[in-house]
Amino acid sequence: MRFVSRIAPWSWVAVLLVLSLAIPGCSSVTPMPSRLAGKSGLDRVFRLGTGDRLKVTVFGEEELSSDVEIDASGNVTLPLVGPIAAKGQTLEQFSAKLRDTLNKGYLKNPKIGVQVINYRPFYVQGEVRQGGEFAYKLGLKVADAVALAGGYSYRADQSFIRLRREGDPEERAVALDGELAVLPGDNILIPERFF
Predict the structure, then answer these.
(1) Which of 41, 51, 109, 175 could form a disulfide bond with 36, CB atoms 3.0-4.6 angstroms apart?
(2) DSSP, res 109
(3) Please, are residues 98 and 109 in contact by the beta-carbon 8 Å criterion?
């Protein structure tokens, strides 16, 4: 009890302030590599998203065929049909939806072809030389993405990345093994190495 009474009242405020700053910092500590998420759950199928540009071909109906971009609301607008939801769907799902829509009063048994002609970009940030937005190419791996960003900085931790896939609610720490594929819309953060 005597110890408590000898401490000045303002010092208690300082102690509480230091503790309040230290505790939240503990919750954002980057996980150690032994606790990193594996690739399971990350190897997702490509899904359409805002900014993807599509070539839609309706065979035998040139006026219905066009190049379209998925807008901010996740739709594409096609002649005769109007807006159709595309975001979050695979190419096969979108093709089937478009075929069903055209089959309902527009065309009889339409033949549809949909292909991506321009993918939305992906992003690299953190401990790289030139982070930013980059054009997506098929077959891109994380090592390729880092190379496009100018390579690792001298402070980079090269054992794992923090990855947020488009549509995922949170980012994950993922161990690097050179085989992790990049998808359009990915946000890759290269963490800082702590000595």
Answers:
(1) 175
(2) S
(3) no
